[in-house]
Design brief:
single chain, alpha/beta, Rossmann fold, Beta-Lactamase, Alpha-Beta Plaits, ten-stranded mixed sheet, five-stranded parallel sheet, 27 strands
């Protein structure tokens, strides 16, 4: 939900009630782009002119009554769930709403219930959209596959209950037929010589009972003229015109079985390491996931990554890369039992499929970790002591899709790498709550340690003027340094810090470090301005403005060189505190910036209550800006309103040249984004040459 913007229409009599719902949703981590129609005509226009996800309507709304809302949504022909908000739910209300076609009722005075209902309905909507998309893709794939089968040189047939229902030209030619009508409804048993007829009959009986087919079967095939040839039948479960069937590929045996087995082995092996390749491993993983989905099978996946791989290559030379991977793969294989499937999975990463419960999977991971740590890897010209990071997942019913398993294993691997490497992190769905709690507590300690030991660092991203001004300006971006020196992105630890009341300390650290950086810039003769994000915790910190003033005075920096930034949604829900905070900062010339501007229903109206100098446009407005007419109009409208109000606007997350073209024709003042200049540890952007 945090990565998806929910486009919601709020049908409320009062603007304040709509703003309250928006605030509740955002406080629950739900990103929303709201609209509020004031009458039925405006509602119909919004339904017809822009993509929408949900409609939330007050049950007793007078401006646009519930029945009119439902009628307008039905008339739009779009799949847009209508949710009713109210202060109570009883059986009569529930029955009435269900009869009207309302998807769900949410209690507006119970934030957790409102958040849960919106999340559930939005996820259901996404699943329906994904299903429709997949159905279209499936039909298109079936059409393409049918065309490919017709043109394929492999003899392919589809069989249902032992009878032919489809066969391509190569199949007909192999058995001496000219038209499919000659074999339509003919038993595939007629294509098998009498010497193997009984064996094939038994196979057909097992298939009729629902048993899975073998991957292949060697037999003697028989043509229409009675001549025979040695063949291999390859089976695969399939569907044809929506009906389950078997796909059969007849291959004439031109090589002996031993050579065929050797070729199969070569196809499944990585040429550098001799381990299984990614393709073979994925097929094994698919089978393991399928077993887990049925509630059977105990298996786990481990992703193993060589720590500091780039640095090792710098030491031994790029020409030794294959030798390093070969030796590492060999070491890994020796540490595993015959039950484990081991493969080269990425450029310098491996994967292991373990057969056993979570305890066994963790034991295998510890064997691998210790096996690398405690020994020396001997190469032709080098002796190396490698360590590895391991991320894994115990495959179960709660995470029974290959994509989910790999995504979660990848997350665990990145987390292990972020903890200085030589570390194991395994996700077990059955112990999710316990493991999550332990993980969070570990991060809380790491954050406290980073604050105590000055292990946070700042990166600086240039904020560039569209009007050829040479004023140097950067946004400060927080990073955390692990014990091994790697940088940890803020979304890994900031949500945990906020949940455990550590953001006020982090804010003070960031502000203090920003002021020190301004001092360094001043010594270099540069009048740089820095923008620093703060959290709502700091708004209620009455001592912070005076502390900032004293630090600025100590280093001899004027307050106009520092800008503090806070999200619009937090200002709306803490308006009095934000106003007092801004007034206290203003006495020392420190400016305030509202970020995510434009995410509310009437963002510009907020400026009547609080005097800020900078407005940073909401990230969602920058998505596909070069193509989205709706976003372009919104950016131009907000930036012009801000200019008329004497405010400076910043467009963040600039993605491409098309977005810049739009921004040049708007009233936006400043731009920022990786497309223009990425963030880095040094403030070295040449503003005068931009």
């Amino acid at each position: 939900m945090q990565d998806s913007v929910v486009r919601v229409v709020l049908v409320e009599d009062r603007l304040e009630d709509a703003e309250q719902i928006i605030s509740i949703l955002r406080n629950g981590g739900i990103a929303v782009r709201p609209n509020r129609p004031e009458n039925e005509e405006e509602l119909e226009r919004q339904l017809g002119s822009q993509p929408l996800d949900l409609v939330l309507v007050a049950r007793n709304c007078q401006a646009v009554p519930l029945k009119d809302v439902l009628s307008a949504v039905d008339a739009s022909g779009k799949d847009i769930p209508v949710l009713v908000t109210d202060t109570e739910i009883n059986t009569d209300i529930a029955a009435e709403m269900t009869a009207l076609g309302v998807r769900a009722i949410a209690l507006r005075d119970r934030p957790e219930h409102l958040q849960a209902v919106v999340t559930q309905e939005f996820q259901s909507l996404q699943q329906r959209r994904a299903t429709r998309h997949l159905e279209v893709a499936l039909r298109e794939s079936e059409r393409r596959c049918d065309a490919l089968i017709d043109s394929s040189r492999d003899p392919i047939a589809y069989v249902h209950e032992g009878m032919h229902i489809r066969g391509n030209q190569a199949y007909l030619e192999m058995f001496g037929y000219e038209e499919f009508e000659e074999i339509e409804g003919l038993s595939v048993l007629d294509m098998v010589a009498s010497s193997h007829a009984e064996e094939f009959k038994n196979l057909l009986k097992s298939l009729s009972k629902g048993e899975p087919p073998p991957k292949s079967m060697e037999l003697t095939a028989q043509r229409s003229d009675g001549t025979t040839f040695d063949a291999v039948m390859e089976f695969a479960q399939a569907t044809y015109e929506g009906e389950p069937c078997q796909q059969i590929v007849f291959r004439q045996q031109l090589i002996d079985a031993e050579m065929a087995a050797e070729l199969d082995s070569l196809r499944s092996r990585d040429q550098v390491t001799g381990l299984f390749n990614r393709s073979h491993f994925m097929s094994q993983l698919d089978e393991a996931v399928s077993e887990a989905a049925k509630g059977s099978g105990k298996q786990g996946i481990l992703l193993v990554d060589i720590d500091g791989y780039a640095g090792l290559l710098n030491s031994i030379g790029l020409g030794q890369a294959d030798a390093l991977l070969r030796e590492a793969g060999g070491r890994l294989q020796k540490l595993l039992s015959d039950n484990e499937v081991c493969a080269r999975f990425s450029d310098h990463g491996f994967a292991v499929l373990c057969h056993g419960d979570h305890k066994h999977t963790h034991a295998v991971a510890e064997t691998i970790r210790g096996g690398f740590q405690d020994s020396v890897l001997e190469m032709e010209k080098h002796s190396l002591n490698l360590t590895v990071s391991i991320g894994g997942v115990q495959i179960g019913e709660k995470i029974a899709s290959t994509q989910q398993v790999l995504a979660k294993a990848g997350q665990c691997l990145q987390s292990a790498i972020a903890q200085s490497g030589n570390h194991i992190e395994i996700f077990d769905p059955a112990a999710r709550d316990r493991a999550e709690e332990e993980r969070i507590l570990q991060w809380v300690e790491k954050i406290k340690q980073a604050l105590d030991n000055n292990e946070f660092v700042l990166h600086f991203q240039p904020i560039i003027s569209l009007h050829d001004e040479s004023q140097a300006c950067y946004e400060c971006l927080l990073r955390m340094r692990s014990e091994g020196g790697e940088l940890i992105p803020p979304m890994t630890f900031l949500p945990i810090a906020e949940e455990h009341g550590l953001m006020e300390r982090i804010d003070r650290w960031v502000i203090g470090r920003a002021i020190s950086s301004l001092e360094d810039e001043n010594k270099q003769g540069r009048s740089t301005r820095l923008l620093v994000k703060i959290t709502p915790d700091s708004l209620s910190d009455g001592k912070l403005p005076a502390l900032i003033a004293s630090q600025l005075q100590r280093v001899g920096i004027n307050g106009d060189r520092l800008v503090l930034s806070i999200p619009e949604s937090k200002v709306v829900t803490n308006l009095n505190a934000a106003k007092s905070f801004q007034e206290a900062l203003g006495k020392h010339d420190v400016a305030l910036c509202i970020e995510q501007f434009g995410s509310g229903l009437n963002s510009i109206q907020m400026l009547q209550h609080i005097d800020v100098q900078y407005l940073k446009l909401d990230k969602s407005l920058m998505q596909d800006l070069g193509k989205s007419q709706d976003n372009q109009e919104k950016v131009r409208e907000l930036s012009q309103q801000a200019r008329d109000a004497g405010k400076i606007t910043i467009a963040d997350y600039v993605q491409d040249a098309a977005s810049m073209t739009v921004l040049f024709t708007s009233a936006v003042d400043l731009v920022e984004g990786d497309f223009l200049a990425p963030a880095g540890p040094e403030m070295n952007y040449e503003f005068g040459q931009s």
